[in-house]
Amino acid sequence: MKLILDPAQAMLAKTASDFANKHDPVDRQRQLRNDKSELGYSPAVWSEMADLGWTGIPFAEDLGGLGMGMAEAVLISESMGEALAPEPFISAVIFAGSLIEALGTTEQKQAWLQPTIEGQKRLAVAHQEQATRFDPAHCTTTAEQVDGGWRLTGTKAHVIDGYDANGWVVAARTSGGDRDEDGISLFIVAAGANGATCTHQARVDSRNASTLVLAGAPGELLGGVDGGGPALSEAIDRATVALCGEMLGMVREAFERTIEYLKTREQFGAKIGTFQALQHRAAEMFVEIELCKSVVMGAARTLDEDGDVSNRIAQVANAKARCSDTVILVTNEALQMHGGVGMTDEYDIGLFMKRARVCELTFGDASYQRNRFAKAQGF
Amino acid sequence: MKLILDPAQAMLAKTASDFANKHDPVDRQRQLRNDKSELGYSPAVWSEMADLGWTGIPFAEDLGGLGMGMAEAVLISESMGEALAPEPFISAVIFAGSLIEALGTTEQKQAWLQPTIEGQKRLAVAHQEQATRFDPAHCTTTAEQVDGGWRLTGTKAHVIDGYDANGWVVAARTSGGDRDEDGISLFIVAAGANGATCTHQARVDSRNASTLVLAGAPGELLGGVDGGGPALSEAIDRATVALCGEMLGMVREAFERTIEYLKTREQFGAKIGTFQALQHRAAEMFVEIELCKSVVMGAARTLDEDGDVSNRIAQVANAKARCSDTVILVTNEALQMHGGVGMTDEYDIGLFMKRARVCELTFGDASYQRNRFAKAQGF
Amino acid sequence: MSDLETFRSETRSWLEANAPDALRGKRNDPEAVPWGGRNPNYKYPECADWLDLMAAKGFTAPTWPTEYGGGGLSREEASVLDQELMDLELPPGLTGFGLSMIGPTLLQYGTDQQKQEHLPNITGGKIRWCQGYSEPNAGSDLASLASAAVRDGDEFVINGQKIWTSGADHADCIFMLTRTETSGKKQAGITFILVDMDQDGVEVRPILLVSGASPFCETFFRNARAKVSNVIGEINGGWTVAKALLTFERNMIGGMAAARTSLPDLGAEYLGRNDDGSLADPILRDEIAQMEMDALSFGLTVQRNADAVKSGKQPGPESSMFKYYGTELNMRREQLMLSIREQQGLGWEGDGYSTDELVQTRAWLRSRGNSIEGGTSEVQLNIISKRVLGLPG
Amino acid sequence: MSDLETFRSETRSWLEANAPDALRGKRNDPEAVPWGGRNPNYKYPECADWLDLMAAKGFTAPTWPTEYGGGGLSREEASVLDQELMDLELPPGLTGFGLSMIGPTLLQYGTDQQKQEHLPNITGGKIRWCQGYSEPNAGSDLASLASAAVRDGDEFVINGQKIWTSGADHADCIFMLTRTETSGKKQAGITFILVDMDQDGVEVRPILLVSGASPFCETFFRNARAKVSNVIGEINGGWTVAKALLTFERNMIGGMAAARTSLPDLGAEYLGRNDDGSLADPILRDEIAQMEMDALSFGLTVQRNADAVKSGKQPGPESSMFKYYGTELNMRREQLMLSIREQQGLGWEGDGYSTDELVQTRAWLRSRGNSIEGGTSEVQLNIISKRVLGLPG
User: Fold this and answer.
1) Which of A326, B287, D30, D291 sits 20 to 30 Å CA-CA off B89?
2) Would you say residue D315 lies in a domain?
3) Residue C119 falls within a domain, yes or no?
4) What is the ipTM, given to two decimal places?
5) How far is CA D74 from the centre of its chain?
6) Which residues in chain B have their CB less than 8 angstroms from residue A280's CB?
7) Whole-angstrom Cα distance, residue C218 to residue C168?
8) Chain A partners within 8 Å of C353 (Cβ)
9) In this structure, are residues A332 and A304 in contact, taking their beta carbons and an 8 Å threshold?
10) Strands D148-152, D155-166: parallel, antiparallel or unpaired by DSSP?
11) D140 and D256, same structural domain?
12) How many domains does chain D have?
């Protein structure tokens, strides 16, 4: 793999960044919060993104997609991270969309993937439960066959962008014990189905991550029975790398703003950027961010080019751990270097810090990823 | 407990520091190394220390001791750390001596403790074996009763100051499995006994930590059968705290020399102590060293005043973990701030760095101590 | 029975007889602690009585002299009082910047008249104070402040702006630094003065923080007035007074790191335990142990310092260490608690989160300011390197 | 078969036919690598033949132009050559500062005549080089160097002292920085010159290090002489050349972090494994994972930079990042290896330690200098903050 953007990718990156940055983007995020938007994003902007083709980036052209890969998807999420854009690109396109494309029947693709690409519908993935410490194999929600159909029972937690979705891809157990990797099947549960209740919940970043209560709700099987685990795991990896792209955009933006502040703010009769202690900390952040750029590129290209599962896991775990650590480091340092003003609600840095914490924990924190990396590498 | 020196302790600290610092102390350490002294210390200086009463510090006055406690013992080891004095105060007085005083019969005290106090004999403790990761309960050396006496078989590793000792206190298994805390008994094996071979080994700090091979060597029981574990554990704690005192002396001295260097060395047309990045790192070290002072005092006084085992373990584990981390931090930073000259053999900082690494790992590194602390606190 | 034990049993009896039932068990409820002032607004009406009862005994300022409404107690007795309050889970009788900051400063630098005028109003909870130090262009570089005080007869006329004035929207009076001389060394033209905020020339605007709360304000002065007799220390000599007060402030903020929620218990709740009782996540267990050990070490250091002060040592610039390490400790602790709670620690609102979880999200956000307020961590490290270690430049 | 695969199979055949048996499997033995020079001293006599064989093929400097004895290979081909050497566990044909430092500098800044005079002697291993940069009072602040070079006809006469001259006791020639102008900006009076060390005016004294080895020397110049034609770049313009060379040095030292011993294997040996194959110590396992991930991330960054350079990007001050992170990585790795080996990692001599263990103690000590030599970590951070981030002051 080559760790460099080709001309088409460079152009896509520029278009994405231009789009995400127009109209005072961070202010838009603050406005959504102040309006207590339950959706947490703007349907109008989402629709524009669909018009630009972003919703079809990774999908085959015969489905209406652009036939690109994760190398391109991370350019989109990176630009959204720069602007703190909250639209459901990762949850609906990369996460749910990948599962439908990988496992769906022709009918399921027509029913869910094409409308996703067109920006008309979106699914959210309900794969987690409470207190399962990021482990996707830890699944207690069950699915039973009743009268030729499937009925799902259990509570899924932290369903990203789950509120007001048109349906959910739900992981449920069809055999095995609570923590077995085998025996998990995937189902599509349509919004409005009897026995499916999704309650709104806001996180510290003002986006929604919902609880989905299933009380015998009807689900449509996606893929084979008992074999959903590996596909789910790969889809999580794709969503994770897209999230790494978002974190990279965030750290780049928060860092740039901080460097700018260091060059203008004066204390003790000098620009604070002349203080060597701050200079060294800034230089250390620069190095960490350069590493982040490399691991995001590396992980995205590995997903596109390499079929080896343990190599895939190692690259993805590495990227997520590093981006998690760096997004916390850089947003904390940004706040500290901005001083008191950084703590105020009217200043943007706080919004980056809040979103950073959510990203850090989504799809597993650094400690979880180190464990996963070690397992994949056989130690 | 009060965390302050009383006037008598303050005077003892001053006497000890004055003694340890006379005659270019660090040069003495270098000379012993260059002479390839197998003993690793100077018997003449050791004899002077005995004359000053240091060898009797913690022992009851009716045995010829000074009747003091660990609060005083750490003042001695701290001054020895300042000067990198390699005499066997911790191994012979605090570690072996404590075991004889706690468990010995009147005859054993006469045979071993009184000559220790007089500076005539010394014992070393052989409690460890290879690859036991600091766990004193992991003991495979066995003791069997033969013709009314005990015969010991096994190999003890890393016996501190073991070479040329007059005898060894050996931990051997008399019942239970390899890692059981119960079933360990302690024995005195005299130097020259048939079947006891101690081979000289030098560590990176030029001191000796020997291998003791026991092939049916005769041993004299110290304390009760099977019950040596708790006494051994307490003696290790006492020796650990004395070692924390030594580390405190080392960090204080290495730090002082570094601050002095920062105030005199010039680069880029200025004293390097004016560079804020170095100033902040120095200030952070200052804080860590202040914490070390407190934990050494706290742990020593807890051993003297508090009978509660889990509190004792928590205080000792805390002191050792912190001093281990700090001695590595401060000696590494001292080297870095001294630049190239610090890397040369003729400069003292390297000697501190080498001894620091040995201290860090003796009686358990910081990670081992955190585990021990957590266990003692029930989590 | 020793004198101390007598004091303990008498105090215990008095507390049991007099403390309002409504406040028992409320020690950890921030809204149960009286802040006093001209217009107090209490969640529990009993707070007003509690304040008066405690003040009458001198228990709002236990170690201050009795002539100013203090308790005249020794440190040991004050500590016994605190233990007994804790045992009954009772809040203190009063809190605020009068007790923790301007009071100690007046005791050290005030004239007899100033002490008599202000200290009884502090111990009695009659006047609530706030601090006017930072300005928009004088944060870490405090001495470059610009708010002007111009002499007009026996008054000063004040114009300018303060920021980060903690609790200014509830305060009656402000102790503030003003510029009374613009030439010469900037530290040498500062005057420390007390200003009544109940006048037209003072306007207060709360600042909304990332945590969603507004503990700080911007405070504007437009021809506000204060008597010259309210200058503490010399005119143009306020910097000395200001530094002494900063020491009190650092001690207060550094001391906030006191343990609340037990981390091992929190770990057991969220991570579970292995058969041998150890927490099920070995990495988080290790981090919790490190945190507990750091807190133990810090506590021992606070105690060592207190023991040294008791035996005559003067507090010096090393108090910067307490501010620095105490706040960093608190911030690391809040971050670790989030890691333990995992995604449950991310909640802002909704049924999926417990009250504890929602409170902690905000506490974490609030904690991010600890290393900025009261002198940034960087300023504390500067003080240590220059004034303790004597490094040049 | 692609051209590259053809090259691979031809190279493989050639190596298998020609490489001395005595050197196979010796890739990790530092003493099996030829350093060349006028008076080489080899542990394995076959090293001399190996050097000549490889030099004749241009394989000592695979990517250099063939006219100077290089191989004229593409980066991809050079990489294939390296892989095949690794597969056969063969050492490279030559190593040293000629190849890694002065050679690339001459290729960039040398005149045609200088290239023709010196480069073939480098690729052929005829001349061994060392570097004369640091002086006792010019460490991190390199530009304040004082060693004087005074013009005398078509020669310079050199007086002064260099320190940290790596391998000077085995070197034939030295490339050094001298002061040729004492007034004006200190960077503007420096001249970069090549000096033959085989003359009376040059004296070398090895420096004993904490590791017990003497890889560095002090080098004294007393009326030593060098031809003016051996000045690289302009007289008084040596600083530009010096900085370019520092980039090569940083890349070399940063690149030393390449993995050798596998940490997971070392962990398995010293810590054991659980039934599920995981290392028995969860904390060290976590640290090993962090280390492996840092190394992977660094490797990806080196690759990303190489890919960018290949597509036309000029190397800039961000190369400081590679020196900084690469050396810090290497030092942390050595420390971690000691922690894994526990007390077995403390050995200096004696039967109780394996050769690997004794070697590693010394490697750890040696590694402590990585963040000092070739520009300290602090200097690299300064470069990044000023020249990459554009911070003022």
Assistant:
1) B287
2) yes
3) no
4) 0.88
5) 21
6) 277
7) 8
8) 201
9) no
10) antiparallel
11) no
12) 3
